[in-house]
């Protein structure tokens, strides 16, 4: 089964969304920004206002522990569900595992030097829980592993030394195997053990790291890991059990927020990285825009909306009926623990149109000719980066928003002289960024953008076959080669304006 099915479709299949209707004829507005001319001297022309970002905008890039680190048996790291899953025949394309990945565990100094050279202002990475606590149980995380803590201290120090701000994610899917052996995210106790681990990391890195994110993409690890089984731990739960897992995910987030706050210096900023369905009106008209606002809440009813609203959407609960999650008012209070920023991972646009049904909208499926990148699920919908933050801001007024991921997979090929001329990824990034700029210019409080990803890396069930980096990695030699898109990004950062 391809990943394309899972990302956005599963919630629909579970009956959470309104039924998709036939595709209407859509008039799409094509943005045609004025292109600056490069002068003969090679100097950059002044940026037209429709391209420039606010001063101090935080240009960054992101990675995740299992996708880049490798060194899975080193310095006391315990096994995770991804070690188990990737070593199970038939689960990952080409039988690829994260055993070596980008060898970032050893090569981080030169990779950070490359980030600095590119002008990155921030770097989002994740901590591997099992490097800190190799074998947690449901009773406690057990004995901390000093070598694991020391690794992340060294990493963060090197990032800071390069003048780059570290943004730390506590959970990017590599759950310790010892917890999965006790039920993993199906066991409510995992939420408390996660919070304890998050508090511990905040205590040890909080002097260096000012921004923490609890969980990355709850919808992905819940639906892909526990719903259709294409990600670790590979389970296929029914609708009721899956809804309970998603409840534990949001609860873990809330308890994590509280634990990080309790263990870090005043002023530490806490948030999450959520892949909220990026509800995008089919075009800009009052009824479709209104429909997209309704969709943003209901399509994200298991994840973002309870975190921001403090309750589950009544229509979601009605549709789930007896399959709705079991929870207490105390749970809901924790889930809605105030956050300092909201991270959005934005990839495809999910098109919405007005409808006269109970929900007031319907999702519009992609036509077969809709353009996509190398990953089948990754439809190109640049205006998602305008509408998702805009609607989220209108609905919930977060204090700050970061785009914690946005990027694209391409079929990168080396030219005879060793370059990667990824004009497609560059086109993708340019158009998404122009849409982001539009929202910021209108006052949406987006403070930073993290390109996914810095390096080609282990793309989960797709193995090394789908490349998302702006830096090419030859996995046989570990040689890094910045792609054309990296040069585009460097120019964009230098000008603080879309290049
Ligand atoms: C995810 C992750 C990343 C992916 C990226 C491309 O959401 O899946 O946060 O780990 O690699 O999104 O698929």
Task: Kindly state the number of beta strands.
Answer: 13
CATH topology: TIM Barrel
* Count of separate DSSP helical elements: 17
Main sheet? 8 strands, parallel, barrel
Q: Structural class, from helix and strand content?
A: alpha/beta
CATH superfamily: Glycosidases
Order of helices and strands: HEHHHEHHEHHEHHEEHHHHEEEHEHEEEH
First-last Cα distance: 38 Å
Helix content estimate: 25-40%
CATH level-1 class? Alpha Beta
**Beta strand %:** 5-15%
Shape: globular
Rounded radius of gyration (Å)? 21 Å
CATH architecture: Alpha-Beta Barrel
Name the average pLDDT: 92
Strand order of the largest sheet: 1-2-3-4-5-7-10-11
Q: Name every ligand kind in the structure.
A: D-gluconic acid
List key phrases describing it.
499 residues; TIM Barrel; 8-stranded parallel barrel; 3-stranded mixed beta sheet; 17 helices; globular; disordered N terminus; binds D-gluconic acid
Written account of the structure:
The chain is an alpha/beta fold and 499 residues long. It has one domain (3-18, 45-495): TIM Barrel (Alpha-Beta Barrel). 38% of the residues lie in helices and 13% in strands. It has helices at residues 3-13, 65-68, 81-86, 104-118, 129-132, 146-161, 177-180, 189-205, 218-227, 239-263, 286-299, 304-309, 314-320, 329-335, 384-396, 423-441, 484-495, and strands at 58-62, 122-126, 165-171, 211-216, 269-274, 279-281, 342-345, 350-354, 361-363, 401-406, 446-452, 471-474, 479-482. α8 (189-205) packs parallel to α10. Mean pLDDT is 92; it is low at 1-41. D-gluconic acid (GCO) is lined by residues 64, 67, 216-217, 220, 275, 345, 405, 452, 459, 468.
């Amino acid at each position: 089964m391809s990943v394309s099915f899972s990302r956005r479709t599963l919630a629909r299949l579970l009956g959470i969304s309104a039924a998709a209707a036939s595709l209407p004829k859509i008039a799409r507005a094509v943005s045609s920004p004025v292109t600056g001319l490069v002068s003969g001297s090679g100097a950059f022309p002044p940026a037209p206002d429709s391209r420039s970002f606010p001063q101090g905008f935080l240009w960054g890039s992101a990675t995740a522990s299992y996708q880049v680190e490798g060194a899975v048996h080193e310095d006391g790291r315990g096994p995770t569900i991804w070690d188990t899953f990737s070593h199970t025949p038939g689960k990952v394309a080409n039988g690829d595992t994260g055993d070596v990945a980008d060898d970032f565990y050893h090569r981080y100094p030169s990779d950070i030097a490359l980030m600095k050279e590119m002008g990155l202002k921030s770097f989002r990475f994740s901590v591997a829980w099992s490097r800190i606590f190799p074998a947690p149980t449901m009773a406690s995380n057990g004995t901390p592993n000093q070598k694991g803590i020391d690794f992340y201290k060294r990493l963060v120090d090197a990032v800071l030394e390069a003048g780059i701000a570290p943004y730390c994610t506590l959970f990017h899917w590599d759950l310790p195997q010892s917890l999965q052996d006790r039920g993993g995210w199906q066991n409510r106790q995992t939420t408390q053990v996660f919070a304890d681990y998050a508090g511990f990391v905040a205590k040890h890195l909080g002097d260096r790291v000012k921004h923490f994110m609890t969980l990355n993409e709850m919808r992905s690890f819940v639906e892909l890991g526990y719903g259709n089984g294409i990600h670790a731990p590979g389970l296929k739960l029914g609708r009721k059990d899956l809804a309970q897992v998603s409840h534990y995910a949001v609860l873990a987030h809330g308890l994590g927020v509280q634990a990080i706050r309790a263990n870090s210096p005043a002023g530490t900023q806490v948030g999450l990285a959520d892949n909220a369905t990026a509800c995008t009106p089919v075009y800009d008209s009052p009824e479709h825009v209104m429909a997209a606002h309704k969709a943003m809440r209901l399509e994200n009813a298991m994840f973002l909306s309870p975190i921001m609203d403090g309750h589950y959407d009544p229509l979601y609960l009605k549709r789930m009926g007896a399959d709705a999650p079991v929870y207490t008012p105390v749970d809901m209070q924790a889930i809605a623990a105030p956050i300092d920023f909201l991270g959005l991972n934005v990839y495809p646009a999910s098109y919405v149109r007005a409808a006269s049904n109970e929900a007031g909208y319907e999702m519009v499926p992609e036509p077969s000719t809709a353009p996509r990148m190398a990953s089948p699920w990754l439809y190109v919908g640049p205006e998602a980066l305008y509408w998702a933050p805009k609607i989220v801001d209108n609905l919930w007024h977060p204090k700050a928003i970061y785009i914690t991921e946005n990027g694209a997979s391409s079929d990168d090929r080396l030219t005879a002289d060793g370059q990667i001329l990824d004009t497609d990824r560059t086109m993708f990034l340019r158009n998404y960024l122009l849409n982001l700029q539009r929202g910021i210019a209108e006052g949406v409080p987006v403070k930073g953008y993290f390109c996914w990803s810095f390096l080609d890396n282990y793309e989960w069930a797709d193995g090394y076959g789908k490349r998302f980096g702006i830096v090419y990695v030859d996995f046989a030699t570990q040689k890094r080669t910045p792609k054309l898109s990296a040069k585009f990004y460097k120019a964009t950062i230098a000008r603080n304006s879309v290049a």
